[in-house]
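Batch job 17 of 40 flagged for manual review because the log was empty.
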Amino acid sequence: MKKYYKILEKCPLFDNIESENLFKMLRCLGVKVESFDKKYTIMSEGSPARYIGIVLSGSAQIIQVDYFGFRSILSNIEPSQVFGEAFACAEIKSIPVTVVANEPCEVMLIDCSHILHTCSNNCGFHQQLIFNLMKDLAAKTISFHQKQEITSKRTTREKLMTYLSLQAKKEGCNRFQIPFNRQELADYLEVDRSGLSVEISKLRNEGVLYSKKNTFELLEKY
């Protein structure tokens, strides 16, 4: 577990927990670490909503597929980020999304019941862990509303520029990289890929933005 320390100390779930207590806590929680190849399903839709996951290396995506097979990317998960917590805490029978490895990755899985219910050892850090979990859930709610703000726009152009503007604000710079390729960006924005490519070309020609692969630069106010 020690090789993951630098990642775990950045994880919001373990905020304000002293380093000497971290590994004691992991033993108490009975965590397990699993490795997944690219495109391997980490959590599948319909599986029991039991575990909270933490990406230790690589990256993963939370996706949702509707009745007609339309695929929507809900979020990208990078190292130290948490996933599955909302479903596990809600104690629903099964999760309504699928989590897929975007590249080879390692994931720490924690049985949520070990967090929500204090252990017999009366660990002093347990209350801090629950507090951190609530903060993380609140942050995810804000992120969810931001995605709604993006996808509620009427046109592909508006959706794209709203997303890019939010990314620039997040990075504090008008030049930045996004965690998606073109198809993934289309899935995240919930638009057609060809239509998205057309809009990106138009915006480049108009001098509004520069783009190369997953690098974008906003050149002027839209």
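Reviewer: the log was empty due to a logging misconfiguration, but the result itself is present. The helical segments are 5-8, 19-29, 85-90, 113-116, 126-151, 156-171, 182-189, 193-205. Unflagging and moving on to job 18.
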